[in-house]
Every structure is written in C-alpha cells, then in structure tokens.
From TrEMBL:
It holds the Pfam family Cohesin. One of its GO terms (molecular function) is carbohydrate binding. It comes from candidate division WWE3 bacterium CG08_land_8_20_14_0_20_41_15. This is Cohesin domain-containing protein. GO terms for biological process: polysaccharide catabolic process. Residues 70-127 form the Cohesin domain. The lineage of its organism: Bacteria, Katanobacteria.
Length: 360
C-alpha cells in the first residue's frame, strides 16, 4: 500500500513539473547541438577545400619559374636569373628549390634569397639552407616563414609572382645551357609532393605540397667569333660523299643515293655535284625518301645552271625534315628534261656524290 501511494505522488509531481523538466533538458541540449553543428561545418569546409584542390578550382596551386631579362649573352657576362614563386594567394609556410645546371659550361657566382631583394616583397624570410655545389652542378635554397608552429605566412601577393630568390651566373664555354628544377624520388610530404623542389601549406593541419608546375630556362652564350659565325654554323654538313669523276645521266625519272646521318636535327637542304650536257640552262629536282622509297618531303628545285662543268647544286626544302641519327634515308634526284640533259657526278666504288646539311 505504501509503495502504491509513493508511485502515485511521484507521478502527480512529474506531471505538474513537466514544463520545468522540458526546459532543463532543452538547456542541456544547446551545447551539444552547437558543437555538432560546428563540427559538421568544419568537416564540410574541409571536404569542400579538398574537393576544390583536387579539381584545380581552388587557389591551392603554386608555380615556380626561372626568368632572365634575355636569353642570349656573351661569355663572361654576368647574368641574373630570378626564381619566381606564385602561390595564387594561398598562404605558404615553407619551400625548397633545387636547381641543376651544366657545370662544364656554367658557373654560379651566388644566390640571393628573396627577402634580400628590396623591389620584391619576400614571401619566406627564414633561410634554412643556401648553398651551391659546383661539383654536382646544383643550387639548393630552402626557406620558411620563421613563425612558431609552422604557421603560414599570410601576406604574399595573390596576383603576381614573388621572387623566391635570385641566381647570378656566367658562362665558361660558348653554347646552350638549361637551368632546370630538380626533383628527388622521395618527397617530404604526401604522394603528390615532388621532393627536392616543393611549396608547402597547411591543409587540415597537415603539410601539403601545392606545387603543380615549374618552368625551366634556356640560355645561349656566345663569343665574338661564334657570334659572327652563328648563321654559318647553324647548319653543318653531316653525311656526305664528295669524290668522283664519273657521270650518271638524269632525265625526269628519279635516281637515288642512300645516307645515314650521325646527328639528329632538321634537314633543311641537300646538295649533289651535277653538270649539264649540251647548251642551255638546267636544274635538278630532289626529295628525301625513306629506305623503302616512300616520300618524306616534296621535291624541291635547285637554281638554274648551264655548261658542262660540274659543281655543287644545292636544293633547299621549304619545310625542313626532322631526321634521326642512325636511320637510313635516300636522296632522290631527277633532271628537268625528258632527255638526259643533266648528269650526276659519282665514284664507281663509293657511289653518287651528295651532301646533307643538318641544322640544330
């Protein structure tokens, strides 16, 4: 009886105070709802950030490039090469750059970090590594923000590249030199990181490499003598057969001679040693074929000539042919008359005369 009375009293009190209980439970649930909403928002923002980065629609991309005022210099002339970094506005806290070069042709005189170049706002101000290894032909520059806990630097220019650093170089030998970004097999962070050369930001509290592309720099260095002869040396005779006193007559049917270049490049012209029978002006027509006589160029015509004295007749192709060293080709030539008005000089052992001019 006492138990039933106690239950009855508790039930009546619970009904009378249900508004108070409801209010208490509501207040207790507010922090839980707020925290759940905040967590969902953070998760959604993080997922959106990753999705945008994956589709290259976000600013989470960085590019590196090498720039100089011009691309042609003389031997001994000091050249400044800027290492430019564009983060697209993404805060970054670290970056390392390794640059390779031909040590037999180029000398690196020094490296200036971006923070020491007054005309460009420095993006990374803490110099971690700055060295030149002449024996390897490499430059290594590793920089950070110098801020505690790896916090990203927030003040870089979003619309134009900043200068990460500057190289000062000069040539030892004449020729072409490429300065290029090097990448190690093992990156610092993540499967998408590029290794020795990277640009780091924080993504969900973890380091992420946002470097997506880099542009190398090609420089040409010349001496005064080379500069004067550049046009003459741009194309050189590669394969040839220049001996002979025999005469092989040419009509309008093609005859050919095989050749195998020792260099790859652009074949812009050929020459054969030829003369004419009788009087009047003549020309020769030539083309390049593969070893199976399939045409690789349209036929082209030499300038006109007259007389029986043989000489080298050059034939220039309007569209150069890219040829590969070690591959067999043929020079096929004909005369301009239905009768044998032209002869092609040959050696009965070595074959027909010819010259090929390969340009670089």
């Amino acid at each position: 009886m006492k138990i039933k009375t106690a239950i009855f009293v508790f039930t009546r009190r619970l009904k009378n105070n249900k508004k108070i209980v409801f209010a208490f439970l509501s207040l207790a649930l507010i922090p839980v709802i707020f925290l759940a909403s905040f967590a969902a928002g953070s998760l959604r923002e993080s997922m959106d950030l990753r999705q945008e980065a994956a589709t290259n629609k976000s600013p989470l991309v960085a590019t590196l490039s090498l720039k100089s005022q011009q691309t042609s210099y003389k031997i001994g002339e000091e050249v400044e090469v800027d290492i430019k970094l564009n983060t697209g506005g993404t805060p970054v806290y670290a970056g390392q750059v390794r640059i390779g070069y031909n040590k037999t042709r180029l000398q690196v005189l020094g490296v200036v970090p971006g923070k020491d170049i007054s005309q460009s706002p420095a993006m990374l101000t803490e110099i971690l590594v700055n060295n030149v290894k002449e024996e390897e032909g490499t430059v290594f520059l590793d920089q950070g923000t110098g801020l505690p806990s790896g916090l990203p630097y927030q003040n870089q220019n979003a619309s134009t590249p900043g200068i990460y650093g500057r190289l000062k170089v000069k040539a030892i030998l004449a020729g072409k030199v490429t300065l290029y970004f090097k990448y190690a097999n093992t990156p610092r962070y993540g499967t998408q990181a590029k290794g020795d050369t990277d640009v780091l930001t924080l993504l969900d509290g973890s380091p992420a490499d946002i470097l997506v592309s880099s542009s190398n720099l090609k420089l040409t260095f010349t001496s005064e003598e080379v500069e004067k002869e550049t046009k003459l040396e741009a194309c050189e005779i590669n394969s040839c057969q220049e001996d002979g006193i025999g005469k092989d007559s040419l009509d309008k049917n093609f005859k050919s001679v095989s050749f195998t270049p020792t260099l790859s490049g652009r074949l812009e012209k050929v020459a054969i040693k030829a003369g004419g029978f009788g009087v009047g002006t003549r020309s020769v027509f030539c083309k390049i074929t593969d070893k199976n006589n399939r045409d690789l160029t349209p036929e082209a015509r030499s300038s006109t000539f007259s007389g029986q004295t043989p000489d080298w007749r050059e034939v220039n192709f309007s569209t150069p042919l890219d040829i590969v060293a070690g591959t067999s080709y043929k020079i096929a030539c004909r005369g301009s008359e239905a009768w044998s008005g032209v002869f092609w000089v040959l050696d009965w052992t070595k074959g027909k005369t010819y010259r090929t001019f390969i340009c670089h």
